[in-house]
Design a protein that fits this description.
The complex is a heterodimer of chains A (270) and B (224).
Chain A: H1 2-6, H2 11-17, E1 22-23, E2 31-38, E3 44-48, E4 51-57, E5 61-68, E6 71-79, E7 90-97, E8 102-109, E9 115-122, E10 131-141, E11 145-149, E12 152-158, E13 163-169, E14 171-179, E15 185-194, E16 198-207, E17 214-221, E18 224-225, H3 246-269
Chain B: H1 2-20, H2 23-27, E1 60-62, E2 74-79, E3 84-91, E4 108-111, E5 127-130, E6 134-135, E7 139-140, E8 154-159, E9 164-176, H3 182-187, E10 193-203, E11 208-219
Parallel strand pairs in B: 3-4, 5-10
Antiparallel strand pairs in B: 2-3, 2-8, 4-5, 6-7, 8-9, 9-11, 10-11
Classes of the chains: A mainly beta (270), B alpha+beta (224).
């Protein structure tokens, strides 16, 4: 039935209604970069292309997001009391950033406990309506882990420095991390809210041996499919024109029907 | 007794048919193609290696549990001068790619994938609240008053965390659904609050209004 109604609508209307626009999560022509400090017990300075960009950057801190021109940036991390970036504790590393993309650079420990850096790309593709995205990244000096949600293993054997992700219906999930194949949580359980068109990124960081395992998190707005139409009326009661709205006709009809029935009822009772 | 029931059953059936009748206008978008946003930029679009200077202070926050807590959501919309005071629920897309709307004209839908007045990762985007201008149960709904909005009208969005965000109306637009640019309303990052309903002529043949009414409001105190 809907098809036959549609047939009456001009083709131009169809085209106009088809302008469902994706909302861009990153500004036109830019790249987005966040920086997470995931090395325990080490406050640092961060130099980008030789310029001091983050002063006294502490473990567990998240900087950004920065809107940057696409290109390759050289990042060096030094002790917090360094005068310049000539003697980095980490780097310099090159971060190639592409237009329209979102990144998180993470300074962290590798599985053996040595400082390293990883550049992750944050997935901005639009989740389905009603869903958000969960990303889990293992950046801790710890063996492979299993990730649990609401009592079930959802990601198995995630190893440093890997990531896993899934799109989930909007809601709050009880998340936990155990060593792979085990059930006792080494992190959590903790509530993680998944919101529409948001990539919630959870990091396991720190050191199992050092007793400093911790959870860090960031949220990134993804692209989203926007509606092609807002059809916000059903009756014609708010119409500009003087024609009798359908709702009135219906109500009048119902009154007539009700009246007829009442009359009949009276007759029957007699 | 039997006679008393018959009209009410009839009413329910007619109302159901009328509510469903809102669908044709939405149905048009089912034929549209949603642009694929998942494609990464092609290599040609990547600029040559550059080394621009990062400008300004860099925001730094603790990457702690706050990021994984449930963010705030709008739960009530109030426009005193227009007599609007209604609950708000979160909505997404309907099956046809149109904006899902609460059945009742007395409840507004907040499009969750656009901006969030309460802030958070979607805090920069325009927030869109829409409601049916009428329905078969209550007749005209609160949003029927939107076309009487005037610049300077104060709009309040109450959030479910107890906070309130205040906006001032900037303009009212009534635009043919054929021409309305929803991409700006839903997609721009102006922190605007856009209230949307239907208006204009009622096309009885396809059972939808020909126009969209959009009220644009901006955060109180924001420079415009």
């Amino acid at each position: 039935m809907r098809t036959s109604i549609l047939a009456g609508i001009a083709a131009g209307t169809l085209l106009a209604a088809g302008t469902a626009a994706p909302a861009l999560a990153v500004d036109d022509g830019k790249a987005e970069l966040s920086v997470l400090h995931g090395v325990p017990d080490l406050t640092v300075d961060v130099y980008v292309d030789g310029a001091l960009t983050l002063d006294d950057f502490a473990p567990g801190d998240l900087a950004g997001p920065l809107e940057l021109d696409p290109g390759t940036y050289s990042v060096a991390i030094t002790a917090a009391d360094a005068a310049d970036d000539s003697d980095p504790v980490l780097g310099p590393v090159d971060l190639p950033l592409e237009e329209g993309m979102s990144y998180t650079a993470v300074a962290h420990l590798d599985e053996a406990g040595d400082p390293t850096a990883s550049l992750f790309t944050n997935d901005l593709t639009a989740p389905a309506s009603g869903e958000g995205r969960l990303t889990v990244r293992h950046v801790a000096a710890a063996p492979a882990v299993d990730v649990w949600a609401d009592g079930d293993v959802v990601f198995e054997s995630l190893a440093n420095p890997d990531e896993v992700m899934a799109d989930l219906p909007v809601g709050t999930y009880e998340a936990a991390v155990s060593l792979a194949g085990e059930t006792d949580p080494v992190l959590g359980p903790t509530d993680v809210a998944i919101e529409e068109a948001v990539n919630t990124i959870v990091y396991a960081w720190g050191s199992a041996e050092g007793g400093s395992l911790a959870v860090a998190a960031q949220t990134v707005a993804t692209h989203a499919d926007m509606p092609g139409a807002v059809s916000a009326g059903t009756q014609g009661l708010a119409a500009d024109d003087a024609g009798i709205p359908a709702g009135v006709v219906v109500v009048a009809g119902l009154v007539l029907i009700a009246g007829a029935l009442t009359t009949r009822a009276v007759l029957v009772r007699r | 007794m039997r006679t008393g029931r018959v009209p009410s059953i009839g009413t329910a059936a007619v109302l159901a048919a009328l509510l469903a009748a809102c669908a044709p206008a939405e149905g048009r978008s089912a034929l549209s193609t949603v642009p694929d946003t998942s494609a990464a930029p092609s290599p040609e679009t990547i600029a040559a290696v550059t080394a621009p200077t990062i400008v300004g202070p860099v925001p730094v926050q603790r990457a702690d549990a706050a990021a994984i807590a449930q963010g705030p959501a709008p739960e009530r919309l109030v426009v005193d001068r227009l007599g609007i005071d209604m609950p708000v629920i979160g909505v997404g897309l309907d099956a046809d790619g149109g904006m899902e709307l609460p059945d009742s004209a007395e409840t507004a839908g907040w499009f969750r994938a656009a901006g969030n007045p309460g802030g958070g990762p979607r805090g920069d985007g325009n927030a869109v609240l829409a409601a049916h201008v009428d329905d078969g149960v209550v007749g005209l709904g609160p949003f029927a008053a939107l076309r009487d909005a005037r610049p300077g009208d104060r709009v309040r969005v109450d959030l479910d965390d107890g906070r309130t965000v205040a906006y001032l109306v900037d303009r009212v637009e009534q635009t043919s659904k054929r021409e309305v640019d929803l991409s700006v309303a839903f997609g721009a990052a102006e922190r605007a609050l856009v209230l949307v309903t239907c208006g204009g002529r009622w096309d009885a043949d396809v059972r939808h209004y020909e126009d969209n009414v959009l009220v644009w409001a901006y955060p109180e105190g924001a420079l415009r």
